[in-house]
Amino acid sequence: MLVVTAVMKxxxxxxxxxxxxIKEYAPRFLKAPGTIxxxxxxxxxxxxxxxxxxxxxxxKALTYHSSAPHFKDMFTTLKPCLDGRxxxxxxxxx
Length: 94
Description:
Layout: E1 2-9, H1 15-30, E2 35-42, E3 49-56, H2 59-67, H3 69-78, E4 87-92
Antiparallel strand pairs: 1-3, 1-4, 2-3
Helix pairs in contact: 1-3
């Protein structure tokens, strides 16, 4: 099983726009084949920071996720809201 974590930081004044886009797209990711979990949270002490926790059955499911048209659409929409790069960790569950 593959685990992906990601951290995104919204520009000042853009956190609610970022949250809106994430909420719009998240259900599509949950329906993708091989997706086990797709959760997004915000830091309690800094609501500009978003934390993604995702689980996939295998490499094929992760490849599908990252190549889906709605994945690309979401990042195109999110890009103007982001402050810096998205930090991503790819992990193997033990």
